[in-house]
TrEMBL record, chain A:
Family matches, as NCBIfam families: gly_red_sel_B, various_sel_PB
GO molecular function, one term: glycine reductase activity
Protein name as catalogued: Glycine reductase
Entry similarity comment: Belongs to the GrdB/GrdF/GrdH family.
Automatic annotation (TrEMBL), chain B:
Domain of life: Bacteria
GO molecular function: glycine reductase activity
InterPro entries named among the record's database cross-references: Various_sel_PB
Sorted UniProt keywords: Oxidoreductase, Selenocysteine
Name of this protein: Glycine reductase
EC number: 1.21.4.2
Amino acid sequence: MGKAKVVHYINQFFAGIGGEEKADTKPHILNELPPVSAQLDKALGEEVEIVGTVVCGDSYFNENLDEAKVEVLDMIKSFEPDMVIAGPAFNAGRYGMACGAVVKMVQEELGIKAFTAMYDENPGVDVFKKDAYIVRTKDSAAGMRTAIPAVAKFALKLISGEEILSPAEEGYIERGIRVNAPAEERGSMRAVRMLIQKLKGEEFVTEYPMPAFDRVAPNQPIKDVTKAKIAIVTSGGIVPKGNPDRIESSSASKYGKYDISGFADLTEADHETAHGGYDPVYANLDADRVIPVDVLREMEKNGEIGELFQYFYTTVGNGTSVANSKQFAAEIAKDLLDNKVDAVILTST
Amino acid sequence: MVKEIERAGIPVVHMCTVVPISLTVGANRIIPTIAIPHPLGNPALDPSEEKSIRRKLVEKALRALETEVHGQTVFED
């Protein structure tokens, strides 16, 4: 058997095409392996070769899911590969969603092996971990140095057909799959030992972690929107021009609360976006494209809503940790309640 | 964020383009929007047309806030 053939799926950034301004790049095959594919190819050694790289812009993929999937699949298929590797996507949300979708599709449609790699909090993990192996990486491309060997090692194992062991042993994210395995001690012994450890306050590892379902039931609808006080919250990073509180363009450590009582329309003279995870051109020209102040103001005037709350709340939802987001929102929610806001429109980019 | 606001007892509608992410984070009332960098606008249109599609989306969001839902609901057209 000759070398095993691998196709690499990456986004526009890792292809060296550009950042957010190129996120609408359509799927295509790169004529030459970009550095990330070349590095991975080298790490894969002599027996496995990356025969081609398929690239697609993150926004294009997520906004045109059905077409993008067909186009990407056809390109991958043209190489007749033995395996597909997507990413690593680190904590880039749209990239992670695309990688997960590509891997799932390749497994189902082509019946070949595929996997991806990303950070635990990437939204692609929750959506695709049941469908695919996702090798755990750090949260940013600064972790590429450790990600490449981890991805290569997993690739060689997966393509060899050897048994894939537990997530902890192989370095992938838990998929919620239970596997029978022989144990040295019988269950009662292990359970009692765990109980004693727990009583003593010692660390122990459960053999059956409960899935963490954190769902909040929907609240009752508002009765009469024409009497309601509506507030705007956004993760799209809209801020007053100049970003007075210096909200970070990614991994935000804070949120802002800004007065919009004087505005009937947001313009490039007064508002912009601080978000570093999408092409800012359109939001900088007209921030109403992210937070619809103009329309809500008009509706307030026409009596279609009771009132547009005096302030809006904003942060940058770009690689921002779940812990930070929860904390921001808990503080925002308290403030909304104190101000007797009836309902919230939350916009995301 | 959307879940924490809901948890506090305030009805919230999530307007976003990547609906699968919204479903994963646990939003209950979801309005699909236009594009990632301009969810509530379309720079390809002239300003009055653009504002009118924004208005339609906001009207849809307000209707969602007035609608009783029993689980995650995506308000398509």
